[in-house]
Amino acid sequence: MSYEPQDGLPNVDATTPPVLVLPGPVTRDEIPRLCADVRARLTATGAGVVVCDVAGIGPPGLDAVDLLARLQLAARRAGGRIRLRDPDPALRALLGLVGLAFEVEGQSEEREPAGGVEKAVEPGDPAL
Predict the structure, then answer these.
(1) DSSP letter string over 40-83?
(2) Of 48, 119, 113, 54, nearest in space to 79 by CA
(3) pLDDT digits (tens, 9 = 90+) for 42-60
């Protein structure tokens, strides 16, 4: 069986996920608009994830947790999810305390070693 050569990589999807930059402190009145924006971006791009840049979200607090939980719920209902970009360590800790787990850009997945990390070998260990 033979195939004609094709240009490029036919099975590679080069789309990048859409990015939603969350501005400074978000008020409760803005949450429905942001949720609608997440749903619209998922629908328009066909991507399974929307990246939420939370670097400028302001001091971490329960309002930020509420916003992110609602954005995640809106994304799940639209068949996708959100991924956080540049979260403050205090925000990540607060999300962990309330039991919300979010995917974070640049973070290795669970059970996957970070790139470039090798196991140490002790003298006297048997060769594999």
Answers:
(1) HHHHHH--SEEEEE-TTS-S-SHHHHHHHHHHHHHHHHTT-EEE
(2) 48
(3) 999 888 999 999 999 988 8
Query: What tokens appear for 17 in the block?
Result: 């996920």
Alpha carbon separation from 85 to 4, 9, 60, 88 (Å, rounded) = 42, 28, 14, 9
DSSP element (H, E) containing 92? helix 89-97
- Residue 19 identity: V
* CA–CA dist 114, 70 (Å, integer): 30
- Residues, the chain: 128
pLDDT tens digit sequence for 3-18: 565 565 454 444 688 9
Maximum C-alpha span of the chain: 64
Helix (H) or strand (E) run with residue 34 in it: helix 31-45
